[in-house]
Amino acid sequence: MATTRKDIEAALWRGANTFRGAIDAANYKDYLLPMLFVKYLSDTYTENVDDLKKKYNDPVRLQRAINRLPFVIKERHSFSWLYDNRYNDNLGELINVALRGIEDDNPSLFAGIFRSIDFNSEAMLGNHKQKNTRLRELLEDFEPLDLRPSAIQPEEGKVAVETVGDAYEYMIGEFAGQAGKKAGSFFTPSEISELMARIVDPKISDIMYDPTCGSGSLLIRTGKTAIAKENGFVKSLSLYGQEMNGSSWSMAKMNMFLHEILDAKIAWGDTLANPLHLDSDGNLMQFDVIVANMPFSQDKWAAGFNTGGEMAGKSKEFKMEPALDKYHRFDWGIPPASKGDWAFLLHMISSLKSGGRMAAVVPHGVLFRGASEGRIRQAAIEKNLLDAVIGLPANLFYGTSIPACILVFKKNRNRDDVLFIDASGKDENGNLRYKKDKNQNKLEIKNIEDIVKAYESRENINKFAHVASIAEIKANEYNLNIPRFVETFEEETLIDIEVTKTNIANIQYELTEVEAQMAKYLKELGL
Known about the structure:
By secondary structure, this protein is α/β, with parallel strands linked by helices. 43% of the residues lie in helices and 12% in strands.
């Protein structure tokens, strides 16, 4: 019987139920997604070897063909071996050894991919007995799942591995929904990824980058948007990302592999203090397309620049200065120590090629906060880099209910205006420009289409879009607060005082009659 995406998702939910109540929902992903990944690798490798055995009778030729496979999974590192040994007293240690073995045997693909995961942690999984029980049940949750490529029933227009990848990404989103505030650091809702990818309009030849890539979903969607334009025939992509959180970095590496993007360059480290994508001269690498759902107003964003030191026998207070950054990203100004939004934006602008496009999700404070942020914002506008400001509805993102917006920048623009779009309200028919949900609002396909169409047409649309000149923005003192440019005020219907007075009089008359009737009934009852 063929394995469908729903079968894969069901196995992941079984695993989630195994851990429910034992560990925080935010940590489910750290155990379930790697186990799915190991199951897929093991089943795929087994089928590849079996196919080669049917093809080659000569042991030498067979071994040579096996050595040419994209990756190797030794028997003691395979899911089936772990399952057969699930009653072993040191199961957590065996799983850890298997994961490290997969890394060591496939350094070009999987080096360090499991380094932030510990299946032998009693602090996370409970005492020795509890831990062994949960891990055994986890293996049993996944064992019925057949992930051999020939056994998977792909969705229309996709191949087997993409079915696994889509299920993987779906579950990242589901875990994000359960993880609360911790979720915003690793997942961008799929509809936001779709919108941003279409806004930056990636080409298959573009070099694409996400400096805060989380689980890689936004970067993958941007790359897949470029492929879709080529009718899916071109598979080579130049994707670069960096992520500071080890667990999220691991997810991104696995996510890329499961979407058949084997050459993505995903670095682990602090993007601001230690950017790792550099050119041959040691300068920041330049990209055609940059997308990011960066941390909102990150506190102590410059901590990585602090090398310590003393002055006059007293500890000196660290203060970020432009000279501390050898890449000259902060020459326009230093963002506040407690709000790193413009620090990330300046990094992206510095990493953008001439003619490049970038879209970043930011909190609304970026649009109007003053002091150093105001000066940086003014410089970006005066240098004609800001292309559009797109206001989004509240409660779209995991981990925060506040409304956000998308800033679009371009280098060497051929125009000198800024487009403002307010997608947080209602359309001309009074319908919301988003789907209101109990837990989290969503942008539907029509909502995305409306935003993209308004961005591409770049025309004034009543209560939705406005093209502002630089002079108009200057007159607003470089404050980009969207209501200053897109008028969404709804005029209240005028009240007819005379009609209202008549209605009140009628109600009072009816009330008097009801009270009289009530008094009659009470008298008849002797009350």
